[in-house]
């Protein structure tokens, strides 16, 4: 049963033009008539009514969240927390997946804007002035996480650089003098927004500069596991393998086991992220935990505050902590 | 810069009423004028233009996917595959999360319908005639997976009952005569749509009926780990612990390790789903694999076929296979 504006006009005893004015929130109609029309349209299940009502209220009570990946557990956790907080404020959340495709990211942003979402939270793969001005022109509040866009776009995350420095100092304090730093995403430098791996890398280098006794190698190869095996064999010094994310640390641990290299007796391993599946892995992985639920919650909270016209910080850092387990 | 229909009217040399007719796809306007107006509106970046154009074309090229959970890896994998297939056909995908909340599921469905998605794929928590008639009245093609709604709503999944029967026969073939069946979701029977655990349970019971030498206990407690420990201690017969999903099997394995019960020497464990994180777990878990990527892909493919007016099957079963590893 498709309801037309003509039927609404007949039921309300007004012209179709008046119905259009009400549904499209244009002037030239008194408030009582508008309300009557909206009520009848609603009762009839007139579908465009939702959009019309949204225009009346000036908002759709819908947020978009743009993610580049749902494989890494971090994003499932963050999304669950974001959604829960948004719901608490009466917002619906639409998630879209860009799969690290820069063109698709722009298409999805346009699509969400066309759908008149009230605000967008995103983990961007585009970068620099192009995305910056696109977001500014959109006129819609935006909050970013993981990869930062610029000083102009609010960003909720952790201080990756400082956290990675802390990790290196922790490794040094355990007596290691040799670190193999594994960060495959670094090879996308300049091609994609890799703010997070770059910040972690900066922290790693800064810490190594502060610790002259540490020798290190940075591994960014696609075949990083093979490189790792070669590097381990090159020296008698027991290495600590520091991975820029737990997902790499899990592959490293599995690979070392297959190659009969005992953890931590022959090589230490440390991750970053404290993803929830670590719970099931032996030996328990030493890593850096950050409150990803808090990031999801605060991103939603700040986005909604921004929609409501309040000022929000350009940068919010949540806490992190080393989780010492059995792999170092 | 906000573009109004007045500006479009001026640029096109027509009345605002004509612009409204064009944008809202109403009659009383010739095709050349309509096209001119749509073109100008498009060039000016007139936002409602997207919706207007969608109405002209009768479709928005957007699909909704309704999931009740993103923690279980199965859903991340399925979503990635669904999205990729939809993109291949030029569709955008909006994911919404119901968090197993039945009222929220209906709210999100309404929200997606208001947004005029062309079709909806869903993993339902509502059930029975209520959801059945809601979906029918929506007038939008729907495909379901995981939990089935009714014979009327297309369903893409595996034959859970047959798969679980196969699992039981496999366990029996390994010499086990005692099975502890762990399926915590069964306690929601009647309260929520738990089609998947119910089908698996039916398969379990049918197989046990076929195998009179097997003794079994079904555990559905919230504290199933404690119950398990008690049951293991009750008999000298080495049990096979068969879990209705890998996520429970992972918790079981971890718990047995903590309690110094060796797998498979003192207790066998088998899961179901073959989630990708099993890759990292010791001992490697014997489980049932089903092609969740294929389910995602075929759900998208069938949904799009249905949107295009083609008939699609009411039920599609993809394949499954026992993955024999080290835990039995």
Automatic annotation (TrEMBL), chains A, B:
InterPro entries associated with the record = HTH_LacI, LacI/GalR-like_sensor, Lambda_DNA-bd_dom_sf, Peripla_BP_I
Name of one Pfam family that matches: LacI
Locate the transmembrane regions by residue number: none
Give a yes or no for keyword Nucleotide-binding in this entry. Answer: no
Q: Which domain of life is it from?
A: Bacteria
Task: Note the coiled coil stretches, chain numbering.
Answer: none
Q: Where is the HTH lacI-type domain?
A: 3-57
| UniProt keyword list | DNA-binding, Transcription, Transcription regulation
**A single Gene Ontology molecular function, please?**
DNA binding
Statement: the UniProt record of this protein carries the keyword Transcription regulation: yes
What is this protein identified as? LacI family DNA-binding transcriptional regulator
To which species is this protein native?
Paenibacillus lignilyticus
């Amino acid at each position: 049963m498709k309801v037309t504006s003509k039927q609404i006009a007949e039921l309300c005893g007004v012209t179709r033009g008046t119905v259009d004015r009400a549904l499209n929130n244009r002037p030239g109609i008194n408030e009582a008539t508008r309300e009557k029309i909206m009520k009848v349209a609603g009762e009839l299940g007139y579908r465009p009514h939702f959009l019309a009502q949204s225009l009346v209220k000036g908002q759709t009570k819908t947020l978009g969240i743009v993610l580049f990946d749902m494989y890494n557990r971090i994003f499932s956790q963050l999304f669950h927390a974001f959604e829960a907080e948004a719901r608490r404020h009466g917002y619906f959340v639409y998630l879209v997946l860009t799969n690290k495709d820069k063109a698709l990211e722009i298409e999805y942003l346009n699509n969400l804007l066309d759908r008149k979402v009230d605000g967008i939270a995103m983990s961007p793969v585009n970068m620099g002035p192009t995305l910056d001005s696109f977001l500014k022109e959109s006129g819609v509040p935006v909050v970013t996480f993981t990869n930062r866009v610029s000083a102009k776009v609010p960003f909720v995350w952790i201080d990756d650089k400082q956290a990675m420095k802390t990790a290196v100092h922790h490794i040094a304090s355990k007596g290691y003098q040799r670190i193999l730093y594994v960060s495959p995403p670094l090879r996308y430098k300049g091609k994609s927004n890799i703010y997070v791996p770059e910040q972690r890398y900066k922290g790693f280098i800064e810490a190594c500069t502060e610790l002259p006794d540490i020798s290190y190698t940075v591994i960014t190869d696609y075949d990083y596991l093979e490189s790792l095996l070669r590097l381990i064999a090159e020296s008698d010094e027991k290495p600590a393998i520091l991975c820029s994310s737990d997902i790499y640390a899990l592959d490293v641990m599995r690979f070392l086991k297959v190659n009969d290299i005992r953890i931590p007796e022959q090589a230490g391993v440390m991750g970053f992220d404290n993803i929830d599946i670590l719970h099931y892995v032996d030996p328990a992985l030493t890593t850096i935990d950050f409150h990803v639920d808090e990031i999801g919650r605060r991103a939603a909270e700040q986005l909604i505050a921004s929609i409501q016209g309040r000022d929000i910080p350009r940068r919010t850092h949540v806490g992190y902590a080393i989780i010492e387990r059995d792999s170092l």
